[in-house]
Amino acid sequence: MNEAQIRRELRLLKAYALATSVLLATLTLAAFGRSAHEKFSEIDVERINVVEPDGKYRFVISNTPKSIGPLYKGRPFGYAGGHRPGMIFFNDEGTENGGLALSGSRGPDGKVQASSHMSFDQFDNDQVLNFDYGENNGRRQVAITMLDRAPIQIEKLTDLYDSLNRITDPAARRSEMLKLMTPPPGEPMVAQRVYLGRTPSKAAQLVLSDPQGRARIRIAVDSTGSPAIEFLDEAGRVATRLPETKK
């Protein structure tokens, strides 16, 4: 290779180095100079995590396989994810405190099964305000429910259920379950206090229950359009009914 060829090769190498440097600088500026606010006309995604600056979850939106399992202060507990498509809410501590889940399909036999569920949880516990729709082969229920729950941490409650599942004797398991469902203060583990909805029997109904979860007032308009108000005793028997039942 003579001197002229060497000089030509050096010029080409310098030009290549300069072009490469310019390209790298452009890519670096583009990466660090991007706006914190991005706009998309359309996006396909399997999961979106909305997190706080410290990394704690606030919302997780996902499909079924990517769905998140329960978290207590950021720690998984209870069961694994992959079962509940929709949106899960988390509180300031990174603990699950409600969510939105949806399902619906028609089987080969033409029967429909569908559900929509949105709930909000008691702090450190489970659902206390629910919005539900459910359908099974034409039987539909649409309801709002409000519940009381015993002040037991959800993580501890899950541990108690796990311990029950390890009891192999059915009678002993039932006995321990009864103890679990009646905490020391005498309040039930969970008691439905308010039900407002459309029942599978096509009645529009409002049911108000006592702290033990026993229905005490029932206001309804049945599937024929007949209205009634019933007052029930602790055993669930109708004490007073308006209008009175004709003898």
Radius of gyration: 30 Å
Count of helix runs = 3
Q: Order of strands across the widest beta sheet? A: 1-2-5-6-7-8-9-10-11-12-13-14
Q: Mean pLDDT across all residues, rounded?
A: 86
Helix content: 10-25%
What is the element layout, followed by pairings?
Layout: H1 3-32, E1 47-51, E2 57-62, E3 71-72, E4 75-76, E5 86-90, E6 96-106, E7 112-121, E8 127-136, E9 139-149, H2 154-165, H3 170-180, E10 190-198, E11 204-209, E12 215-221, E13 227-232, E14 238-242
General description of the model:
With 247 residues, the protein is α+β, with helices and mostly antiparallel strands. It has 3 domains: 1-35; 43-97, no CATH class; 107-150 and 185-242, no CATH class. It is built from 3 helices and 14 strands. It has helices at 3-32, 154-165, 170-180, and strands spanning 47-51, 57-62, 71-72, 75-76, 86-90, 96-106, 112-121, 127-136, 139-149, 190-198, 204-209, 215-221, 227-232, 238-242. The protein has a 12-stranded antiparallel sheet, with no helix packed on it. A two-stranded antiparallel sheet has the order 3-4. It starts with a helix and ends in a 5-residue tail after the last strand.
